[in-house]
Amino acid sequence: MKLLIVESPTKAKTIRKFLKGYYVLATYGHLLDLPQNSFGIYLRNNQIEAKYVPIKGKKKIIEKIKKLAQKAEKIILATDPDREGEMIACEIKMILPEKEHSKIKRIFVHEIIPTAFYQALKNLTQINESLVKAQKGRRYLDRIFGYTLSPILWQNKIGSSAGRVQSAALRLIVEREEEIRNFKKEEYFNVYAFLENFPLPLVLVDKNLKILKIKKEELEKIKKDVLKIKNLKLEKIIEEKKKIYPPLPLDTENLQRIAYQFLKFTPKKTMFIAQKLFEAGYITYHRTDSHLINKNFSLKIKKFIEENYGKNYFSLPRFKKEKISFEAHEAIRPTSLEKPNLTKDFLKLWQLILMMTIASHFKPLEYLESKYIFMQKLPGYKPDEINYPDINRISSSYPGNLSGNNPGSISGNNQGYIFLAINKELVFDGFSRVYPIKEKFSLKPEVKEKEIFTILNLDFKKIETKPPSRFNEASLIKKMKELGIGRPSTYVPIIEILKKRNYIIKEKNFLKPTEKGEAVYKFLLEKYPEIIDLKFTALMEEKLDEIALDKLDYQKFVIDFWQKLGFLS
Q: N or C: which end of the chain has fewer CB within 10 A?
């Protein structure tokens, strides 16, 4: 008998449909862990020893694995291709007697389909001990952090417990709340002009072509000056061809953010559905920081695009390599382009993954951006004082969010008033054939430099500055990724633990700290500032990645961290 072990019963069920000659068994997750009611980590002879015990409710499956292993001629471990999956594989080995170890082989499969399994079974390997050490390092760090700091929080009656990465995430949420509380609203105006025989709105800018934020008391002077002369001269037209590139193939963070944007799925819901889709064989592994797509699958997409959209649309996707990208060899993509028999939310997420995968294989959208610079002469006007080289600083999303630019100042502008208009004309629609974009395009006006246009009217748009928004779950995960806090498998658990501890609450889809959460943050900031320092937390993640790449000794790393906490002499 050949025994193949995975961690998920759904995954096991999918594999049984096509893999013959193997007894496929699921562990139902981890089998062993550090004890719940004791520290479980000991330092002896400058080496860490950890006590692993069976997780509650797992004794029955452990006994079954042992019994089947005795009969098996070969034991194949096919758990997930990441640190957690590698640790589960290690736990299987740990529960088996040493005499069975020679039977154990490891395979890494990133999609639950026949070809992937058949190929993997031809390339049997061993458990990746470096990944196991990285997972142990993470687990030990979290246990040390929790067991040393949590009692201090209890004694001070502040909070229930403290987590290494969760405390850094809590800091982001609390500090954003403080920004909102300390925010002071400001009021200003953008000035728009509308011309006869010119279809675009114009906005008032300074000589660096930055949009001006005008104070209320200056409006009357501007209105009087501009309308007095009534004309604007088209001083210069600058044209530039530009591209909007398609989205990258999906990694975990992008999937969670895009699912929230398009489907309003929480990251937790997205990952639950993605887990089921992966286990059922519909998508590749969903915990990944890679943007790479299998070349054979890209060829299938090429054929699909050429048959449905034309030969001029296909392009191999851009590949953005993250700092560390060893836990998965592919981005998240469908395993087939054929629509599966799925229901409701499962189908919606699969279709979204399909859309993103196909869109990533399209050529960029191309457009012609025309910038029209108008002048109104006043005494002392010198046209060469316009800083044309700075024109590229103008927001490319004009006129949708002009107020987002860095403000210029009208103070001291005695040379004349400068107005700007921007038009975008579509040249090639590219990936927008399959992916919705917000950009608006129109034919460029047929006008020439030095033409004079009559002003029909001015409009003053009142703008009130707004405080920064609270994080929602997707934007918090994006920020954590940017800062290097957490990894694909930990993003959702970080948020869920903070909720469970009542350190944060969800209010109208946004994350808000509770009084308890703020108290915990302030205590840690005062007593252990380095521990919740965002750069320090990111450094911890980088060190764990180095362990996974066998570039750092995990024992020394954990002991050094333990000493930093001040609880190890």
A: C
